[in-house]
Amino acid sequence: MSKQTTYNAGIYVRLSQEDMRAGESLSIENQKLILTKYVAEQGWNLIDTYVDDGYSGTDFNRPAVIRLLDDAKMGKINLIIVKDLSRFGRNYIQVGQYIDYIFPTYNIRFIALNDNVDTLNANSTTMDMMPIMNVFNEWHAANTSKKIKAVIEANCKAGKYRATNAPYGYVKGNDENRLPVPDEPAASVVRRMFEMRSQGISPRHIADMLNEEKILTPSDYLYAKQGKPNPRKTTHLWCTERVRKMLQNPTYLGHLVQMRTTTVSHKNHKLIKRNEEDMVVIKNTHEPLVSQEMWDKCREMDNSVSQGKRDKHGEIMPLSGLMYCADCGEKMRLGWNNTTTGSKKKPRKYLRHNYQCGAYSRYGKFYCTSHHIKMKDINAIVLADIRMMSTLVVEDEEKARQQFLAQKEQINSHQIEMEQKRLRDGKYRLEELRKLIPSIYEDKVLGKIPEDVCVNLLEKYQAEQKELSEDVSKLEAKLSAVKQDKDDVEEFIRRLKKYTDVQELTREMALELIEYVTIDEYSADRPRDIHIYYKLLDKPLLNKLRLDTAKIEKPLD
């Protein structure tokens, strides 16, 4: 770098958020004072001061440092001065890249005052030590990050609420831990949202309803309470994702679930979701807005094969999304026909709803047949079946209980038998491996097998042993869960009792009781098969997108 008689200087000052106080911190003011005085003593021109107050040195995506570098590249300044290297940055790779490559390219002089670093004196001992200083600065940042995370985790485990603002429906309390306190009328909106979801209304439809009623979004509501306009760039409308996140927030159950996200590293601040076992969960810390029963019902709706589709009048029909073609496995699609009745002089037009195979609707007869069925007919069939079972429960609950248990046992028996065999085989092989591994060592000591063969066999057997141990644990847990059949039957009976006198099939009833329904092809010369699969009794439909007809199991006669 050639010597220059005139320097146009830019001083850069930074302080991380951990050391901040309200407004510009005192340390920022001290840095400014020291560097401004030094520039004046040298007789240089001070062009601008670049301040990043509350930013980490590990990330170079800082507003002031970006502006500083842009000005330097455009020639507005040719000298950059900082108090020390750590103020410029704590990422040793990027700091080195700027000092060793970028600054010389643009003929920019760089000075770190307290570290005696001056790129004009490239051969000085201090410049030789600069890489070590940069590494130490990054180590300090990493060490500080670990300490801060440890303090945050300790506070979370102590039950201290760390969020800047409580979720919509709550405000932060005035107690020592600042725990959430219900905030009306937002709390009543949250309760209503959970109630709608429990009835099978999708998050998208919930968002539409809230928008139609002109209910303020969470961010608009927050600023409206403060008497300020919302400064965020937003549509001011409820959206599906916002509703879905709220309905899955355990804070509304009265639990604190904190440290749900973390950063990739102390240098990469991209947020990633933590595993559930790494989150800090403290239960029953504050007043819930929804009950556990309501929460479970909403989760059941989330796991349902049907989210429902509105018709032209904005209504969701009871069995919408729950019906499948028994032949191709596609969902049955709801449609409607314009039908004319009455005399020719006084014709009357009305809409007639009907279901037909979704694949037939899209691809025609080359893929499947229509499997057409009127909505009123299938609703009547399903309602009659539900009323028959509820009548059985009312007349002889114990008989109904035994019949439902027998149905579950028949469905699960084949699966249980297969998994029990896998468990027996797995345990037998584990016992073999337990004997094989020590024998390999003995053969090696006795010289029966060479060392490389011994190592290969040991790696193979130990890997197999680890994999089998995991499989056996999962199978044992799975078989243990199958024993919950009685609880499932009791819950199904409890639900049936709610609908003993029903006269009409409703959406809520269908979602609470029915897993899915399969519709056989219509034929005028033979009976039509319609299979109704019930929640808690029948095998769940695991593939939500398309029914695997090979796995359909007929219910008991």
Q: Segments where pLDDT lies below 50 for 5+ residues?
A: 21-25, 542-557
Proportion of beta-strand residues:
5-15%
Kindly state the mean pLDDT as a whole number?
80
The main pleated sheet reads as: 5 strands, mixed
Question: What is the terminal separation in angstroms?
Answer: 92 Å
The proportion of residues forming helix, as a percent range, comes to 40-55%
Calculate Rg over CA atoms: 35 Å
Structural class: alpha/beta
Structure description:
- The chain is an alpha/beta fold.
- 46% of the residues lie in helices and 15% in strands.
- The protein contains 16 helices and 17 strands.
- It has a 5-stranded mixed β-sheet, with helices on both faces. The chain has a 3-stranded mixed β-sheet with strand order 12-16-17. Strands 13-14-15 form a 3-stranded antiparallel β-sheet.
- It starts with 7 loop residues before the first strand and ends in a 23-residue tail after the last strand.
Helix and strand arrangement:
Elements (H helix, E strand, L loop, with lengths): L7 E8 L10 H17 L2 E9 L9 H11 L5 E4 L2 H4 L3 H14 L3 E4 L4 E2 L6 H33 L12 E3 L7 E3 L3 H13 L4 H10 L5 H8 L14 H8 L8 E3 L2 E3 L7 E3 L6 E3 L9 H12 L19 E3 L6 E11 L4 E11 H6 L9 E2 H21 L1 H49 L5 H32 L2 H13 L9 H7 E6 L10 E5 L23
What is the structure about, briefly put?
Helix content is 46%, strand content 15%.
